[in-house]
Structures are given as structure tokens and as C-alpha cells.
């Protein structure tokens, strides 16, 4: 045998603390055919700074689809199928890097996925640039050992092979055709070169994670041993490995044969023509009283079909796959939404999910029993959803298992007419829905019975669009797309259905009121600015109060939401107004000349707008203008102090009752904003930030110039004609 080793790698990704599925870093690999050994090299590393501490990295594996994980222990939606993923933990302690190997013998060919993440996120809101978080990196490499020219076991043809030694097992493969009901594998004429009784172990199938359904057959002596597999995977290669359990130097000569039992499919119509497909797409034509896609069967053909029913192994219903969008598929039955279900054979529906881009969503199957069509009160329609091959006898296998897959059961009856199944991240394969009528007193009771079941099947990115308190996000890893739910308002879970820590409606209303009404504290600052003739500053504060109020009204996670315009626009205007308010306040305190002040107002606003467009959450977008304005203010105060040969501002009352309280409020506000905000206390800590910042502005604004009189609206409204009369008299006096 000739083995070839191959190496596959992907670029390293920065790990994140886990709060939802988008924090897990996904890696997608493809294992080639005839692979006999798969080895993962998992490389985790961390930074060398003092902020880096001991950390545990969790790595999940799955075949065929991204792993379904639940690190937070939250609830999944009802009727969802959940099978724990296979995972390992890697600890980064004193060592900067950790390398771990994971070996998989005889892996299944196809897509394999790895997801890695850090422990649960702390929930603290960190301002970008205030602290330097530790960097944790993860990179998986894949090594495969592939057998060239693997022997092919042809159906019904005996093949003799040699097992050289226990260290070198024999690998063969056999192709399972479509509509295979049973596969029989037989091992016979096993002899050794030492003419002793041989002992071998036969492993049928490949390893798939998190669950593996390999079938093992142990044979000793020269006795024939065989194994039957019900419903093996259709149209796939099945690997068979024969291991020598004898002495190290003994060679084995084995003869093996595989045979198949075919399953004859039946159909509700003799053929599928283009006219029926066209009718199902456009609806019933004028004058046609039947349902779209229905067919009238002549009486002679109906009797002939009834006589041939017992020779069928299954009844196949034509299904059309309709691609709607990314990870969004609808399955439409050509003969109508209702399918007939019998007891003598299962009704089979084919649900194709083999494009390689369908495993990133959720497969939803809904069943609705028409009670008027079922004349047996105690009868039950049992359904099985399985991958790779259908369940051909649901009445015998109540657990819906096939040769190498554990299916998902569903049932409807007269007492419970509806059933739903949600398969999270279905693996890439051909999926099947099998339905069969079962009677409690035996199948003879319902030989002539028929049940009508309405089947609705579709693939959606997120089940129920993540509900009212979640957002469905489409994630991408290179060319692979998958979806995940980002929950809000304290809700959690795969589809945001876990309300263990959910906020009540009253708490959501309180959060909205606090975050919006706290902006009204800008009203005193606006009044003070207008009283001091600072009209430009008052306009900026009004702008900030307006957009901050409606941004936080739109930014709420619950039901108390009001968006007067696009969310991104509101956020940008809120950030812009906040930074410009700080900019104009400090420049106003500097007491520079008006022309210079207004030039700095305009130039600074333009630069702030540009920097916010580049990085909206960067700390230097706020700190940069503040520091530059403080430099200008300190320089102006020093100039005024030198010119007056004294302290500026010169009044001790100005320092004690205005400047020191304003500066104190500003520092407290910055501390709350930078170090105290978390996801849980955001609604009141950020409200405190609003109150403190607006209050500090009212204290820090400089007083009105002495030569300017206060606003006197009554005098200015009544003396307009008097001014004109005085000007005219002065004009006459000059002439």
C-alpha cells in the first residue's frame, strides 16, 4: 500500500471571551477521500505583557457542520435537537504557547469544523484605548494520511486480501448505491501463514464527531462471521478496516464479500413531467378546480397502483428545493402540502442539504395531521428525520436510527396533531423525512388506512429570527457563511429564548427613561450659555441634548424603542455632539479673541467629524480635542495672568464656587465612563455620566463680559421706533 501525507493550515485568529456564538472563532477544513489518519495540531499562544494571566482555551470539533456549543449553560428553544459537541481544553499558564495533538483514525471524508473561544466574558464595557487587553491567538493545522489506490470491494464478488501485521491494518472500501435497504458484510476463510486460528477485528464506517457510529465485528478462528447494516448511507463510499489481533509476525489471509438488498421505490404518480412542475410554480390555471400540482389518476391505474403497493419498499414524494437567500431554503411538495401516509411502507421526502453552504442555519420541519383523514382514533403517524440515508422501517426502529446515524423522531396523532423539529446546524448531507402510520394493535389493523399529513420544511439562518429580543447576524469565515443570534435585554440562549436573566418591561422602560431624560440636564447649561451671550455654545449643547436623547431611545435592547431616523446616523450625531460640546466649552473658557475662537470652533468641528468617521469609539477622538483645547486654555490663561500680573481668573469666588466644582464633576464623569460601566449597570451609570457632564458645563462656562448688559427683551421690543427717531434727529442736527 502507498500512503500520501498532506498538510492543510489556516491563518491564526485572535480569540475572544464568549458571550454569544459570534465570539467563537470558526475554522473550516475539508478531509479528502480515502483518509486513514487525521491529526490536528492545535497551537494556542498569548502575549507576554503583565496584563496576560492564566487562561483556558476551549476547542470544539464537529463533522459536517459547525459545532453546536453552550458554554454559558443557557436553554435552547423548544423542539430543538441538541447533541453535546466534542471538545478539549488547552491551558495557557506559565508557558507562552501550548501545542496539542488530536488524532482521528479513519475519519469521515468531507467538511470538518473547529470552534475555539475563551471563557465567559466579564461584561465590562471598556473604552477603546484606555487599557491594553492581552492577546490570545489560536491556529489549527491539519495533517492527513491518505491511502492511494484503496482496494474496492465489489458487491457480490469475494475478494481475498492480506493483513501484513497488527501494526498495518487492511483498508478497503465499498460503494453503497441508492435505495439500499440492507448491506451484508461477510468475512470467511481466514487463515494465517503459521496455519493457526486467526483473530481479526473488522471496523465498518468512519469516525464522525461528536458522535461516532462505527460498527465493530470481532472474528476468531476459521468460522464465517457476518454483520448486517440497515439503511447504510446512500451513494457514499463505506470504509472497512480489518485489524490483525494475533502475534506481531503473523500474516492473515482473509476473504470478504459484501452484498446489498435493494429497496424498490414507489411514487404517487407514474412520472414527473414539466407541466406539473409549471403548475406548482404558477398556481392553478383558470377553470382548474383542483389544487396546484394535483394529478387525476385513472381508475385502472389506481387499481393497478393499489395492487403493486405491497411490492414497494417506500413511497417517494417529489420535492423541489427553492433557494431564497443565503442559508435560506424552502422545500415545496409538487403534489401539494399534504402527503398520504400508509402503514405498509414509509412515505419518503428528500431534503437536499448537500451544497456545502447549508450547514450554517437551522432546518425546521413542521408536521400537521388532518384528523378528518384518519379514521382510526388510536393510530399514530411516526416520522423520522435522518441524514445520509432514510429510516425505512420506523415502526421497527422507534429510535429512528440508521446504520451510521441517529435520527430525530417526530409523531402526530388525533390527540396531538402538530409536531415541530429544529435541527441546529444540520450537517452537509442528503436529509430524508420518513413517515409511516402505526397502529397500537398491530399493522394489520390499519392496512387499508391512510392519513394526510401537511409537511412544511425549510432552512432558515436563525429560528424565528432570534425572537423579539435578539438579532440574527450572518457570520463569515473565508467563503463559508453561518448565522448566530445576538441577544439583548438580558435574554440569552441559542435563539434568545432563555429568560432567566431577562429584563422586565418595567425595567426596560426605566432604562429608557433614565438614559433619555438624563439629557435634560443640558437645559441649565443651555440657559447659562444664553444668559452669558454664548449663543454658539448653546446651539451645540442643544444639538447634543437632542441627538443624545433620541440615540439612546433608539439604542435600547427591549421593546421601549423609538428611532426617528437611521440608527447609525443617530449614533454618529450623538458622538459628534458630545465631543464638540467638550471642545467648545474649553475654548470658551480660554477667553481668546472672538474671531480666533470661532475659527477654532469650525476647524475643530471639522477635524472631529473626520476622526469620528475613521474610528467612532477610539479614546483619542475625545481625549485629543480635550487635550488640545486644554493647551490653548492654559496658554491663554497664562497670557492673561502675565498681562495682568496676577492669577487668572482673579476672583477666588470664581475658583471656589464654579471652577473647582465643575472640574470635580468632570473628573467624576470621566471615571464613571471609563472604569465603572458594565452591560448590567449601563443604563444608570451612563445616565450619571449625562448628568455629571451637563452639570460640569454649567459650572465651567465663563461669566458674561462686564461691558455687556444682560438680556432685556422688553426694552428691545419697545424701543425700536425710538432708536430710529433719535438717529433722524441726530442727522438733522449735523446738516
UniProtKB/TrEMBL annotation:
Segments passing through the bilayer: 510-533, 595-614, 620-639, 655-676, 682-701
Main location: membrane
Name of the protein this chain belongs to: TMM8A factor
Residue ranges occupied by any EGF-like domain in the UniProt entry: 485-496
Classification via InterPro entries: EGF, NGX6/PGAP6/MYMK
Entry keyword Transmembrane: yes
Location relative to the cell: Cell membrane
Originating gene: Tmem8a
Keywords on record: Cell membrane, Membrane, Transmembrane, Transmembrane helix
Domain of life (superkingdom): Eukaryota
Annotated segments matching region Disordered: 279-310
PANTHER family in alphabetical order: FIVE-SPAN TRANSMEMBRANE PROTEIN M83, POST-GPI ATTACHMENT TO PROTEINS FACTOR 6
Keyword Cell membrane: yes
Family designation: Belongs to the TMEM8 family.
Membrane topology: Multi-pass membrane protein
Organism whose genome encodes this protein: Crypturellus undulatus
Gene Ontology cellular component list: plasma membrane
Amino acid at each position: 500500500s502507498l500512503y500520501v501525507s498532506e498538510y492543510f493550515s489556516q491563518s491564526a485568529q485572535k480569540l475572544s471571551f464568549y458571550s454569544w456564538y459570534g465570539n467563537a472563532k470558526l475554522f473550516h477544513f475539508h478531509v479528502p477521500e480515502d483518509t486513514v489518519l487525521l491529526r490536528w495540531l492545535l497551537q494556542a499562544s498569548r502575549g507576554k505583557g503583565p496584563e496576560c494571566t492564566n487562561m483556558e482555551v476551549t476547542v470544539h470539533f464537529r463533522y459536517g457542520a459547525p459545532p453546536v456549543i453552550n458554554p454559558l449553560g443557557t436553554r435552547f428553544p423548544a423542539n430543538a435537537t441538541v447533541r453535546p459537541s466534542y471538545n478539549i481544553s488547552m491551558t495557557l499558564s506559565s508557558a507562552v504557547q501550548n501545542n496539542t495533538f488530536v488524532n482521528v483514525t479513519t475519519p469521515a471524508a468531507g467538511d470538518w469544523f473547529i470552534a475555539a473561544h475563551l471563557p465567559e466574558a466579564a461584561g465590562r464595557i471598556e473604552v477603546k484605548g484606555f487599557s491594553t487587553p492581552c492577546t490570545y491567538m489560536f491556529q489549527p493545522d491539519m495533517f492527513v494520511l491518505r491511502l492511494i489506490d484503496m482496494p474496492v470491494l465489489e458487491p457480490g464478488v469475494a475478494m481475498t486480501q492480506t493483513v501484513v501485521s497488527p501494526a498495518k491494518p487492511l483498508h478497503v472500501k465499498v460503494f453503497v448505491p441508492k435505495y439500499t435497504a440492507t448491506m451484508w458484510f461477510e468475512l470467511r476463510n481466514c487463515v494465517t501463514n503459521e496455519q493457526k486460528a486467526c483473530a481479526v477485528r473488522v471496523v465498518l464506517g468512519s469516525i464522525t464527531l461528536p458522535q461516532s457510529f462505527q460498527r465493530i465485528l470481532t472474528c476468531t478462528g476459521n468460522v464465517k462471521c457476518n454483520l448486517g447494516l440497515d439503511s447504510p448511507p446512500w451513494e457514499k463510499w463505506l470504509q472497512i478496516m480489518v485489524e490483525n489481533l494475533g502475534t506481531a509476525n503473523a500474516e492473515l489471509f482473509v476473504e470478504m464479500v459484501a452484498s446489498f438488498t435493494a429497496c424498490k421505490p414507489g411514487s404517487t404518480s407514474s412520472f414527473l413531467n414539466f407541466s406539473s412542475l409549471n403548475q406548482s410554480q404558477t398556481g392553478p390555471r383558470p377553470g382548474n378546480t383542483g389544487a396546484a400540482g394535483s394529478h387525476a389518476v385513472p381508475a385502472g391505474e389506481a387499481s393497478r397502483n393499489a395492487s403493486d403497493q405491497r411490492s414497494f419498499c417506500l413511497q417517494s414524494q417529489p420535492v423541489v428545493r427553492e433557494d431564497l437567500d443565503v442559508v435560506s431554503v424552502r422545500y415545496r411538495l409538487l403534489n401539494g402540502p399534504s402527503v398520504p401516509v400508509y402503514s405498509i411502507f414509509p412515505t419518503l421526502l428528500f431534503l437536499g442539504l448537500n451544497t456545502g453552504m447549508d450547514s450554517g442555519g437551522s432546518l425546521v420541519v413542521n408536521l400537521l395531521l388532518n384528523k378528518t383523514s384518519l379514521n382510526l382514533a388510536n393510530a399514530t403517524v411516526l416520522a423520522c428525520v435522518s441524514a445520509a440515508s432514510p429510516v425505512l422501517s420506523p415502526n421497527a426502529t422507534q429510535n429512528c436510527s440508521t446504520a451510521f446515524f441517529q435520527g430525530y423522531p417526530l409523531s402526530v396523532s388525533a390527540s396531538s396533531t402538530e409536531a415541530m423539529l429544529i435541527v441546529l446546524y444540520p450537517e452537509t448531507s442528503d436529509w430524508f423525512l420518513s413517515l409511516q402510520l402505526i397502529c397500537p394493535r398491530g399493522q394489520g389493523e390499519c392496512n387499508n388506512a391512510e392519513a394526510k399529513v401537511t409537511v412544511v420544511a425549510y432552512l432558515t439562518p436563525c429560528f424565528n429570527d432570534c425572537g423579539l429580543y435578539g438579532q440574527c447576524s450572518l457570520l463569515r469565515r473565508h467563503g463559508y457563511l453561518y448565522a448566530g443570534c445576538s441577544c439583548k435585554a438580558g435574554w440569552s440562549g441559542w435563539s434568545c429564548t432563555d429568560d432567566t436573566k431577562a429584563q422586565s418591561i418595567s425595567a426596560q422602560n426605566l432604562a429608557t427613561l433614565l438614559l433619555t431624560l438624563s439629557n435634560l440636564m443640558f437645559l441649565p447649561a443651555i440657559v447659562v450659555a444664553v444668559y452669558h451671550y454664548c449663543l454658539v455654545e448653546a446651539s451645540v449643547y442643544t444639538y447634543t441634548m437632542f441627538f443624545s436623547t433620541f440615540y439612546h431611545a433608539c439604542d435600547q435592547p427591549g421593546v421601549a424603542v423609538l428611532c426617528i431616523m437611521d440608527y447609525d446616523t443617530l449614533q454618529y450625531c450623538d458622538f459628534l455632539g458630545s465631543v464638540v460640546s467638550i471642545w467648545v466649552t474649553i475654548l470658551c473658557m480660554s477667553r481668546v479673541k472672538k474671531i480666533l475662537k470661532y475659527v477654532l470652533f469650525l476647524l475643530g468641528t471639522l477635524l472631529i467629524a473626520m476622526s469620528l468617521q475613521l474610528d467612532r469609539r477610539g479614546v483619542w477622538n475625545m481625549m485629543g480635542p480635550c487635550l488640545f483645547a486644554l493647551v490653548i486654555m492654559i496658554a491663554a490663561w497664562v497670557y492673561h495672568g502675565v498681562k495682568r500680573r496676577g492669577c487668572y481668573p482673579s476672583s477666588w469666588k470664581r475658583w471656589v464656587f464654579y471652577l473647582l466644582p465643575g472640574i470635580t464633576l468632570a473628573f467624576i464623569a470621566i471615571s464613571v465612563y471609563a472604569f465603572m460601566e458594565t452591560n448590567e449597570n449601563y443604563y444608570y451609570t451612563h445616565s450619571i455620566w449625562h448628568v455629571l457632564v451637563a452639570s460640569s458645563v454649567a459650572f465651567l462656562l465663563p461669566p458674561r463680559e462686564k461691558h455687556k448688559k444682560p438680556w432685556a427683551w422688553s426694552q428691545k421690543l419697545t424701543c425700536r421706533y425710538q432708536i430710529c427717531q433719535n438717529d433722524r434727529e441726530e442727522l438733522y442736527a449735523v446738516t
